[in-house]
């Protein structure tokens, strides 16, 4: 993930259920993205409540799909899983380990992102620790996860005015509400429910028009 790409791109996050027909849906989404000029830059593998062996099994086809389409494959929360499958990177919550540990275990080329909620302090700490991007949110109500922190677009503008490190906006983002986040300077929009709760191709087309 790099801020040298178009002004704003999509960071696609998986639903919690990635079995069944989901690999086919991911193919549809990423092929549509390619036809639309590549709004999807990265895909985050996010599963909960399963052991690492099962996570590896579920990740394998999705990782291959992303690799074939040159989309970064990022593991949510688990440095050990990211290392085990050779993921492109890991996204860390505030209780998922340190940037330093992730860097030592995954290598200098790994993409390491950090959830910073609505905290300027946490974002600056992550940047100083060597993160590759910081994520702010939630900006809107979401059913994807329980929300404890709410962010305003101003934090994106503040970050862009002071730092070169890319920033990700997350939380309830849809084609209908994302314009203020793009205008404020988000490098990436993290989207999940907006895509997977409907027709992924049509939703990506709607995002692409705005991006």
Description:
By secondary structure, this protein is an alpha/beta fold. It is 41% helix and 18% strand. It has an eight-stranded parallel barrel with strand order 1-2-3-4-5-6-7-8, surrounded by six helices.
What is the CATH topology descriptor?
TIM Barrel
Q: What is the CATH superfamily?
A: Aldolase class I
- One letter per element, helices H and strands E, the order comes to EHEHEHEHEHEHEHEHH
- Helix content percent band: 40-55%
Number of domains: 1
CA-to-CA gap between the ends? Answer: 16 Å
Please outline the major beta sheet. Answer: 8 strands, parallel, barrel
Beta strand count: 8
What's the total helix number? 9
Q: Approximately what portion of the residues adopt beta-strand conformation?
A: 15-25%
Q: What is the residue-mean pLDDT, rounded to a whole number? A: 95
Judging from the principal axes of the Cα atoms, what is the shape? globular
CATH class (first level) name:
Alpha Beta
Unreliable runs, pLDDT <50, ≥5 residues?
none
Strand order of the largest sheet: 1-2-3-4-5-6-7-8
| Rg calc | 16 Å
């Amino acid at each position: 993930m790099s801020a040298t790409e178009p002004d704003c791109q999509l960071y696609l996050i998986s639903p919690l259920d990635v079995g069944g027909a989901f690999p086919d849906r991911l193919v549809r989404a990423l092929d549509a993205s390619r036809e639309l000029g590549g709004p999807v830059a990265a895909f985050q593998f996010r599963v909960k409540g399963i052991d690492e062996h099962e996570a590896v099994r579920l990740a394998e086809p999705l990782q291959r799909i992303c690799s074939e389409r040159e989309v970064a494959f990022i593991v949510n929360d688990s440095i050990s899983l990211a290392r085990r499958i050779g993921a492109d990177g890991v996204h860390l919550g505030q209780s998922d380990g340190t940037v330093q540990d992730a860097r030592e275990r995954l290598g200098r080329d790994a993409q390491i992102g950090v959830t910073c909620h609505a905290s300027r302090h946490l974002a600056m700490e992550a940047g100083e620790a060597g993160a590759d991007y910081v994520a702010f949110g939630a900006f809107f109500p979401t059913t994807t996860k329980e929300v404890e922190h709410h962010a305003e677009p101003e934090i994106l503008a503040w970050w862009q005015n002071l730092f070169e490190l890319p920033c990700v906006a997350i939380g309830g983002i849809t084609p209908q509400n994302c314009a203020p986040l793009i205008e404020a300077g988000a490098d990436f929009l993290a989207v999940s429910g907006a895509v997977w709760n409907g027709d992924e191709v049509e939703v990506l087309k709607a995002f692409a028009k705005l991006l």
